[in-house]
Specification:
The protein is an alpha/beta fold and 258 residues long. It folds into two domains: 2-200, Alpha-Beta Complex (2-enoyl-CoA Hydratase, Chain A, domain 1), CATH 3.90.226; 203-250, Lyase 2-enoyl-coa Hydratase, Chain  A, domain 2, CATH 1.10.12. The chain has helices at residues 31-46, 68-71, 76-94, 111-118, 145-152, 155-164, 170-175, 188-201, 204-219, 222-235, 240-250, and strands spanning 2-3, 7-12, 15-20, 51-56, 61-63, 100-104, 107-109, 121-125, 129-131, 168-169, 181-183. The strands form two sheets. It has a seven-stranded mixed sheet, sandwiched between helices. A four-stranded mixed sheet has the order 5-7-9-10. The radius of gyration is 19 Å and the shape is globular. It starts with a strand and ends in an 8-residue tail after the last helix. The structure holds coenzyme A. Residues 25-26, 28, 64-69, 107, 109-111, 133-134 line the site of coenzyme A (COA). The site of coenzyme A has 15 residues, from helix 2 and strand 7.
């Protein structure tokens, strides 16, 4: 286990868990914590894990957003630098070469909601509360919320959340398609363990290729996305897992992926 001051990092069975550990400030993200988060994600990439889980320490919060006491006196260039850092962290989750899961165990406001949106999957505890609340502070989402939220939920929902700063519970977030599932608070860890164990048993290169191709669907034209898919599909032929998966099927046995 590695510790930065406000980030805990551990790897177990090829699954990295990154915990924002600043519970007295509801895991809000000051510059040092964001930088440590970026380092922890880079460490997980070096460790070649098969899944990464992002969560928050304590009983109340996933991440209550960017640090408002830090932001309040920033000028435009300083705000730009803070936005760059938050965007870099979000992008690192989005492009991480294995699936990322936000285990949303409480408040996910502002930048916390945006980092959850940048993960591949979101599992919410029943006590989770989501919100792009920046409008209440006289600003707009600055770590990707205006771009990722409308790609995830319908446009009207995204506009309402961003324009009114509504705080919504886990059930509504699920109904809007912001989270994949809602579980009892005391079941969150067990559910994450199940999901990550399943992911860790999947063929690694195919999982990475699938993630890249799905990301491309949000970022390119249909034509270039389809071209991209053909390339990643054919590129998997000849890999151990492709040979193994198909041989197992024709010989009626379970595959053993790398
Ligand atoms: N930035 C900095 N500090 C924050 C914070 C944030 N985003 N969110 C919470 N904190 C701090 C509080 O200032 C408080 O610190 P203090 O004990 O030194 O006064 C501590 O965390 C606990 O928060 P508190 O507001 O007392 O807890 P609560 O249970 O009454 O309310 C929230 C919880 C999440 C509803 C409330 O803290 C809140 O609305 N936070 C801001 C959320 C937000 O707008 N985030 C988007 C930022 S872009």
């Amino acid at each position: 286990m590695t510790d930065w001051e406000t980030i805990r990092y551990e790897v177990d069975d090829e699954v990295a868990t990154v915990t924002v550990d600043r519970p007295d400030k509801l895991n809000s993200l000051n510059v040092a914590t964001l930088e440590a988060l970026q380092d922890a994600i880079a460490q997980a990439e070096d460790d070649d894990v098969r899944a990464l889980v992002l969560t928050g320490a304590g009983e109340k919060a996933f991440i209550a957003g960017a640090d408002i006491s830090y932001m309040k006196d920033l000028d435009t260039p300083e705000a730009q630098a803070y936005a760059e850092l938050g965007h870099d962290v979000a992008r690192s989750l989005e492009t991480f070469p294995a699936p990322t899961i936000a285990a949303v165990n409480g408040y996910a406001f502002g930048g916390g909601c945006e980092l959850a949106l940048a993960c591949d999957l979101r599992v919410a505890a029943e006590n989770a509360v989501f919100g792009q609340t920046e409008i209440d502070l006289g600003i707009v989402p600055g770590w990707g919320g205006t771009q990722r939220l409308p790609r995830l939920v319908n446009d009207e929902v995204a506009r309402r959340l961003i324009l009114f700063g509504d705080r919504i519970d886990a059930t509504d977030a699920h109904e809007y398609g912001m989270v994949g599932e809602v579980v009892a608070h005391d079941q969150l860890d067990a559910r994450i363990d199940d999901l990550t164990a399943d992911l860790a048993a999947q063929p690694k290169f195919a999982v990475a290729a699938a993630k890249e191709a799905i990301n491309a669907a949000h970022e390119t034209s249909l034509e270039s996305g389809l071209t991209y898919e053909k390339r990643v599909f054919s590129g998997l032929f000849g890999t151990h897992d492709q040979r193994e998966g198909m041989d197992a099927f024709v010989n009626k046995r379970d595959p053993e992926f790398e």
